[in-house]
C-alpha cells in the first residue's frame, strides 16, 4: 500500500512549514515597519499594507496550492485503502475533498483581497476558509475512525478528533466576534469608538 505513493509524505510537512513562515514573515515585516502593534495582531492586519501585503498574499496562495495537493493525496490514499477494506463510501471521501477544496479557495480569496481594500470579499473568503476547514477536519476525523484499526490507530483518531473539537470550539467565537465588529482601519487613536 505505501509503495503506491512514494515521496509524498513531505507535502503536508511543507504545507505546515510554508504556512507558518507566511504568517511569521509578514508579522515580522509589519511590526518592523510599524504597521501593526507587536502584541497579538489580527492575522489579516499583518498582510494589509505593502510590502508585507505582497509577501502575505503570495505565500498564502502557495499555502492554498499545497493544501490542495495535500488533500488530493489524502483523497487518493483513502480511495486506495478503501479498495481492500470498504470502510467508507467513495462519495463521502469525495464530499470531504470538495469541502477541503472550498476551504483552499477561501484561502486564495483571503490572500488576494486585502482586509482593508475589499473587506466584504476578504471576510467571505475567511469564513469559507475557516468554516470549510473545520468541516474538512471533522470529516477526516470520522473517516479515520471508520478505518480503524486496519489503517489508523485509535490514538491517531483521538488526536484528530481533539483537533476537530478545538477547531469547532474556536470557530464559534470567531463568528460571534467578527459579526459584532466592522473593521475599517488598523490605526486607531485614543477616544475613537
TrEMBL record:
GO biological process, one term: regulation of autophagy
Protein name: DRAM1 protein
InterPro entries: CWH43_N (IPR019402), DRAM/TMEM150_Autophagy_Mod (IPR050911)
Native organism taxonomy: Eukaryota, Metazoa, Chordata, Craniata, Vertebrata
GO cellular component, one term: lysosome
Transmembrane feature ranges: 7-34, 54-77, 97-118, 124-143, 155-178
Keywords associated with the record: Membrane, Transmembrane, Transmembrane helix
Subcellular locations according to the entry: Endomembrane system
Species per Swiss-Prot/TrEMBL record: Pampusana beccarii (Western bronze ground-dove)
Gene for this chain: Dram1
UniProt key word Protein biosynthesis: no
Main location class: membrane
Membrane topology: Multi-pass membrane protein
Pfam families associated with the record: Frag1
Family of this protein: Belongs to the DRAM/TMEM150 family.
All residue ranges annotated as the CWH43-like N-terminal domain in the record: 8-183
Domain of life: Eukaryota
Amino acid at each position: 500500500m505505501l509503495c503506491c505513493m512514494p515521496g509524498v509524505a513531505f507535502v503536508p510537512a511543507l504545507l505546515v512549514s510554508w504556512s507558518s513562515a507566511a504568517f511569521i514573515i509578514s508579522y515580522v515585516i509589519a511590526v518592523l515597519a510599524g504597521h501593526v502593534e507587536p502584541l497579538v495582531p489580527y492575522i489579516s492586519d499583518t498582510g494589509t499594507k505593502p510590502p508585507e501585503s505582497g509577501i502575505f498574499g503570495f505565500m498564502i496562495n502557495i499555502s492554498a496550492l499545497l493544501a490542495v495537493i495535500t488533500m488530493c493525496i489524502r483523497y487518493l490514499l483513502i480511495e486506495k485503502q478503501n479498495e481492500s477494506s470498504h470502510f467508507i463510501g467513495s462519495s463521502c471521501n469525495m464530499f470531504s475533498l470538495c469541502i477541503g477544496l472550498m476551504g483552499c479557495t477561501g484561502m486564495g480569496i483571503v490572500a488576494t483581497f486585502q482586509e482593508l481594500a475589499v473587506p466584504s470579499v476578504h471576510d467571505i473568503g475567511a469564513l469559507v476558509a475557516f468554516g470549510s476547514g473545520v468541516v474538512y477536519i471533522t470529516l477526516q476525523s470520522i473517516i479515520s475512525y471508520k478505518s480503524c484499526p486496519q489503517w489508523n490507530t485509535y490514538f491517531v483518531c483521538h488526536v484528530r478528533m481533539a483537533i476537530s473539537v478545538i477547531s469547532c470550539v474556536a470557530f464559534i467565537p470567531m463568528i460571534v466576534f467578527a459579526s459584532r465588529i466592522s473593521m475599517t482601519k488598523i490605526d486607531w487613536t485614543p477616544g475613537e469608538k
